[in-house]
Specification:
Alpha-Beta Plaits; 18% strand; 4 strands; 4-stranded antiparallel β-sheet; 40% helix; alpha+beta; single chain
Length: 141
């Protein structure tokens, strides 16, 4: 599939995100002279074709009042890292959780979890909650 002029205009119109309003697809469509349904259909078609990789929300944490963040790193047994990583990633305050290769001897950590909070103390409380969840199965940095 090759994008046409409307597809290219749609990509340009949504590159910086959808408008924050009750009907964002209709708002974009109105700017382009097409319906919201056509915006959705075109985006779906471009997703299917791999022209658009993903559509997702990217919140501005600072505008939401979250001023502190911290990347926690954990040394988790390889046989448990997928299971425990899924549990950590499901926590509502973890925005990113992923497995990375260890870099021995100086960097034994293979599980990374990003936490956001309104202040440093809140982030530290959340990291402590991750530590409790992981228990003896992990060693943090």
């Amino acid at each position: 599939m090759k994008p046409d002029a409307v597809d290219r205009a749609l990509i340009a119109a949504t590159r910086e995100g959808l408008p924050l309003c009750e009907r964002p697809f209709e708002a974009v469509g109105a700017r382009l002279g097409i319906s919201g349904a056509e915006v959705r259909a075109r985006l779906a078609r471009m997703l299917e074709a791999g022209i658009v990789r993903r559509i997702g929300a990217v919140p501005n944490h600072y505008r939401l009042g979250y001023r502190a963040n911290g990347m926690s790193v954990w040394d988790v047994a390889d046989e448990a890292v997928d299971r425990l990583g899924s549990e950590v990633g499901a926590l509502p305050f973890v925005s990113h959780c992923y497995r990375r290769p260890r870099r021995p001897p100086d960097w034994p950590y293979n599980l990374f979890a990003m936490v956001h909070g309104r202040d440093r103390a809140e982030v530290e409380r959340k990291v402590a909650e991750i530590a409790r969840l992981l228990g003896d199965a992990a060693r943090g940095h």
